[in-house]
Amino acid sequence: MSLVGALPFLKPRLSPSVSPGRQRRHTLPASEFRPLNTQDAISVFEIEKEAFISVSGDCPLHLDEVRHFLTLCPELSMGWFEEGRLVAFIIGSQWDQDRLTLDALTLHKPKGSTVHIHVLAVHRTFRQQGKGPILMWRYLQYLRCLPYVRRAVLMCEDFLVPFYQKSGFKVQGRCSITVASLTFTEMQYPVRGHALMRRNSEAIGFPQNVLLLEEQTQRLESVLLLEEQTQRLESVLLLEEPIQRSESALLLEEQTQRTEPEPADV
Ligand SMILES: CC(C)(COP(=O)(O)OP(=O)(O)OC[C@H]1O[C@@H](n2cnc3c(N)ncnc32)[C@H](O)[C@@H]1OP(=O)(O)O)[C@@H](O)C(=O)NCCC(=O)NCCS
């Protein structure tokens, strides 16, 4: 990791030896949402340090855990970058039980249909601008594109319950996990109407839709097979035609010869 990468909130300075006329212009997107990767781990942890460690001495994910989840399931993370700098992020992993247990803090269960949101945090200088709720909204919309996801869950301190309720989360009850003297409320959000299935799902229902699709595919395949067989038959007939013709010509010749009157003796 370069020094610039390790200090994500400092603007990279241009080398004075490069003349302005020869400087390459890199245009970083003003605003970009993308999944995080392990190279973003330090920037993530910088935000976490300020947001949590400086306040309570601990944070939801330590650096090795951030790397762990960004290696195992980067697709369940989302970063908001402004001009290339991370300003807010969410890190999630899959979970396979109804309620969160201690294991959920460190494990990713690839067969689970629940996304456990470990952490949402906004960089200090970008808070109180509505970025947290916007990122959460985009993340929840994105989850609708993942057909295996049925719901999202999180645990939060009680004072944040109204914040997550505004994003559509509902209280599930007290969380069994405690960290030192901290207790948490468990909340969940049902991920409904997956984007890829939305078109007919309301009227037909997804399983029927899949069956219909399969049925249609099978029908199409059998039509194609029939066409292929017909074509093959036609080409065989076309090939056989000259043979048949010559055979019949021979037969005709033979018959003609037989029926032709014998030349009269002179
Ligand atoms: C909590 C956090 C994600 C909110 O993001 P944000 O972009 O700063 O959100 P905003 O301040 O723009 O607030 C958006 C809305 O949430 C509400 N809100 C924000 N922080 C809140 C809090 N601590 N408690 C209750 N409501 C809160 C605001 O009142 C606002 O409501 P409104 O739209 O009705 O006015 C952000 O402050 C943060 O990163 N904090 C540190 C890390 C943290 O605590 N993360 C959550 C636990 S994992």
UniProtKB/TrEMBL annotation:
What InterPro entries does the database record attribute to this sequence? Acyl_CoA_acyltransferase, GNAT_dom, SNAT-like
Keywords from the named record: Acyltransferase, Biological rhythms, Cytoplasm, Melatonin biosynthesis, Phosphoprotein, Transferase
According to UniProt, this protein's pathway is: Aromatic compound metabolism; melatonin biosynthesis; melatonin from serotonin: step 1/2
Top class in the EC scheme: transferase
Return the SUPFAM superfamilies for the record.
Answer: Acyl-CoA N-acyltransferases (Nat)
| EC number assigned by the record | 2.3.1.87
In this protein, which residues make up the domain named N-acetyltransferase? Answer: 31-192
Give the location in the cell.
Answer: Cytoplasm
Q: Describe the reaction catalysed, as an equation.
A: a 2-arylethylamine + acetyl-CoA = an N-acetyl-2-arylethylamine + CoA + H(+)
This entry's Gene Ontology molecular function terms read:
aralkylamine N-acetyltransferase activity
Q: Name one GO cellular component term.
A: cytoplasm
Q: Name one GO biological process term.
A: melatonin biosynthetic process
Homology family: Belongs to the acetyltransferase family. AANAT subfamily.
| PANTHER family tied to this protein | ARYLALKYLAMINE N-ACETYLTRANSFERASE, SEROTONIN N-ACETYLTRANSFERASE
Supply the name of the protein: Serotonin N-acetyltransferase
- Recall the taxonomic lineage recorded for the source organism: Eukaryota, Metazoa, Chordata, Craniata, Vertebrata
